[in-house]
Design goal:
The chain is built from 6 helices and 2 strands. Helix content is about 55%, strand content about 5%. A two-stranded antiparallel sheet has the order 1-2. The protein is mostly helical and about 160 residues long. The chain is elongated, with a radius of gyration of 19 Å. The protein has helices spanning about 5-20, 30-35, 40-50, 75-85, 100-125, 130-140, and strands spanning about 55, 65.
Amino acid sequence: MLDFRFPTAMQIVFSVALAEKAGIRSTSATLATCLEANPSFIRKLMVPLTRNGIIVSTLGRTGSISLSRPAHEITLRDIYCAVIDDKHIWAARPEGEPRCLVSANACWYFKSIVSEAEEASLDVLSRHTVAEALEEFEKNGTPAGCDDIKSKGLAKSN
């Protein structure tokens, strides 16, 4: 089963940062429209992003979602850890009865290799910030046929 929490949460944070930069209000409904995602999935992901100090949302008719700290202080590791919790990239097989050299050692060996791989992945994510991502997006420009942020329904903030 594919897990889309991290890439979706990353897009939420990128979209909020871009909207903030443009002076445009973000809501869960407009984010859902922009990301072509289920609004309840967006709201579900907002909970850990809020709990982990990545975004903040205000309620009411003029409510909005914003970053809780500057974009250059939010790493992709922050986003990943917020929405994935303690779920491992790969799950080990349950330990069975050690019947041979392989069955006696494969589980601990697999866990050690996976632990090393996960740490390496988290290290890479920690070297990239939301601000750097937006800079890269701006360098690459908008591909032909791609709608700008206003045409996706994000309302101008008052």
